[in-house]
Amino acid sequence: MSESGGKIVLATRNRGKLREMREILRDVAVELITAKEVGAPDVEETGATFEENATLKAIAVATASGHLAIADDSGLEVPALDNAPGVRSARYSEAGTDAANNRKLRTEIAARGLTRPPARFVCAMVAATPEGVLFTVRGEVEGEIIAEPRGESGFGYDPVFFCPELGKTFGEASSVEKEGVSHRGRALRKLADLLKPELK
Ligand code: IMP
Questions:
Q1: pTM of the predicted model over 0.90
Q2: pLDDT, mean over the chain
Q3: Closest ligand 1 atom, CA of 184?
Q4: Closest ligand 1 atom to Cα of 85
């Protein structure tokens, strides 16, 4: 890999994601900075897949900053709903709030007479160099959507996502428990393993 100035730019404004990324990338011998710190522009998520959106963001931030950039895109897929909400997870309902998105999800599931349909969280994560070299990984976690939300932690669809590996919803899990099995934790550990030899 070419010289990226000993810095990796993390292309997210979400504090929870930044903390997870910093924790998992702690052995990588480079300085981690945010896209905000380098003044990189916000990128519209116009892609049809999680990978496309993550790639758009990573390339834009790598180009604007001149450093290696990491970006992710994630969401929830329910196979019985043709994989909705998918890449539209953040803006599934008209209001686009977590509460409204969760309500719409439960309404769509109930309208089809389904109980605890299988679902998965998906995270595509991409590292891009300013020269356009890409590293792409995907992490997934399987679960079920329950009718009544449970738990106060996390965000988005966490309270209705029951994770059999943990025996509780993501809304009931601690951040450490969630990171151990989550789509984002898995993608990030895969990406860290790919990048470590390149950066040492
Ligand atoms: P983003 O593109 O990664 O910011 O995620 C898009 C949307 O997917 C979020 O606004 C959430 O609705 C949903 N989502 C992604 N990851 C999670 C998660 O770990 N828990 C709950 N919802 C999530």
A1: yes
A2: 91
A3: 19
A4: 8
